[in-house]
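Work package 3, deliverable 3.1, input record:
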Amino acid sequence: MIKNKIKGLKMTPQRLAILAYLEGNIDHPSADDIYKAVLKKFPTMSFATVYNTLESLKNRGSVSELTIDPDKKRFDPNPDPHNHLICNKCRKILDIHIDYELRVPYEKKQGFEITGNHIKFYGICPKCRRGK
Amino acid sequence: MIKNKIKGLKMTPQRLAILAYLEGNIDHPSADDIYKAVLKKFPTMSFATVYNTLESLKNRGSVSELTIDPDKKRFDPNPDPHNHLICNKCRKILDIHIDYELRVPYEKKQGFEITGNHIKFYGICPKCRRGK
DNA sequence: CTGGCTGCAAATCTTTTGCATCCTG
DNA sequence: CAGGATGCAAAAGATTTGCAGCCAG
C-alpha cells in the first residue's frame, strides 16, 4: 500500500503520482523516465521534484538507486534484495531472484566489514538474440 | 608489455602516457583522474584524447569500463576477470579475486543467453571504520 | 602521403542547487 | 501557520562531438 511507503513524508499529489508510477514497475526507470511519465498527468511537474522525491524514498528504503546503467541512474521500487540480468545489446534490465551464498574468506576482506552484495549477470535477451 | 595493449592502434605519445599511467594502476580511476594525471606530463592533453583512447582500449579489451560509481565511469586496466569491494563511505574500490560458481537455473534465465557476471561487495573500509 | 589522432571549444545530457511561492499536516 | 515541498531556471559535472590541423605508419 502506497501510503506506507511515504509514512513520515508529506503526501503531496506529485509524490503520490510518482509512487503510483513506481508501484509494481519492473522497468528500472531513470529519473527522466519517471519525469516524462508523471508529466503526462502533472504538466507542472519538475525535475527537482522527481529527484527530491527519489531522494526521500531512497532514505526511507522504499526505492533503491541502481548503478547498472553507465549513462544514468536507474531506480528500483522492488524493496526485497535481488540481483539483475542485463542485456548487452538493448540494455534491458530484468530482476533475477536467486540466493547465492557468497562467503568472503577473512584473508580476502582486506579489512573491510562487508555488509552486502549485488550481482549483475550480463547476456543477450531473447529479443536481441532473435533480432540477430 | 604496453605495446601489446595497443597493437593495431597508432602509438602516439599521448596514448603511451595514458597506458603508462594505467599500467598496474589499482585505483579504478575516472576519465578525469586519468586526464589530470597525464596532463602533468602533457600540458596539451585534452579530454577528447582521453575518452578517445579509452574507447579504443575498451574495444580491444585492454581496459574495462566499470559501472560501480553512480556519478561517473571508472576504468579498470586489470584484464583478468575479478570482482570489486566498495566502501560505502569513501567510495574506495578494491579488487577482490574469488571464484564463485554462479549457476543460473534454466527457468530463471528468462530466455537470456548469459555471458558473464560481476559481483559488487559493499561494506566499510578499514580507514572509514577507524575514522568512526 | 593519408587516415587516424589530437586539441580546442561548443554542445549535450544528467543531476544538483537557489530561491520565491505554495500547501500539507 | 510553519516547515517541508514545489517549480523554475541556472549551475555544475561528465561525456560527446565537430572540425581544422597534425603525425605515425
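The longest helix of chain B spans residues 47-59.
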